[in-house]
Design brief:
globular, 305 residues, 83% helix
Amino acid sequence: MNFFDYINLLIQDYTIRTISMGTAVMGIVCGILGSFAVLRKQSLLGDAISHASLPGIALAFLVTGSKEPLVLFTGAIISGLIATLWIMGITSKTHLKYDTALGLILSVFFGFGMLLLTFIQKQPNANQAGLDKFLFGQAATLMVKDVYFLAIAGGISLALVLIFYKEFKILSFDPQYAKTIGFNTIILDITLTSLIVIAIVIGLQTVGVVLMSAMLIAPAAAARQWTNRLGLMIILAALFGAFSGLTGTALSASMKNLSTGPVIVLVASAIILVSFLFAPDRGLLMRIFRQWKNRNYLKNEFSTN
């Protein structure tokens, strides 16, 4: 299937159009909020939160008996926020390092989530639950109401990023300076982390708990290679995220037995590889080329003199 075939499918096919819109929204939101996670050196936070959201999804289903996205995602957000607050509390109140707290919370919450999923599978309504799709993602199950929910949640998150852009920018680069000029860094930290939690939850149904951290970090890490400006980095990360979602959907639709979520992550990984190699200032091959060019220049200068 070539590009024009995909465009034709995007226009005519309800399923492809729905999945493409959902993955594009997910990529944009993850790219923008992932930029702040990368700059704050919180790349592993996405992995911890995505795994920690699993018990929230399971408990929401057990309590309500509903598979509605709003119900399950609310449970995931609450669980993710609790895990985040625990991580912050562990690092501030104990001598444990940040990565130790992440590993501890990740393993405890994910283990509890798997226990709940096992319990649910043994219930009479296990076949109707379908909660295992949140482990590895199942973009094919996206419906229009899911896309609307993703768009609304993502739109609210991005609106808050625009409103608090200056505060988040200072917090990401120099939290001590933010504190000295009167910003409440604790509230800002909780707000920004909560938005990252929402971004992670948005992508769970598409790429799943296991791969969600890659989707949060990959577009932002790739964008970081191309610029030193936060505004441009956010725009590039959003474009890379949307491109990964749309291209991954197109590739999985054009080939049989290809799950959409893993393909999206592989496309994002390919973007990172290209960025690491060919970015003008930080690219590995470009750096080697500049070194070779400088050596030749110096060699010619010395030989001439």
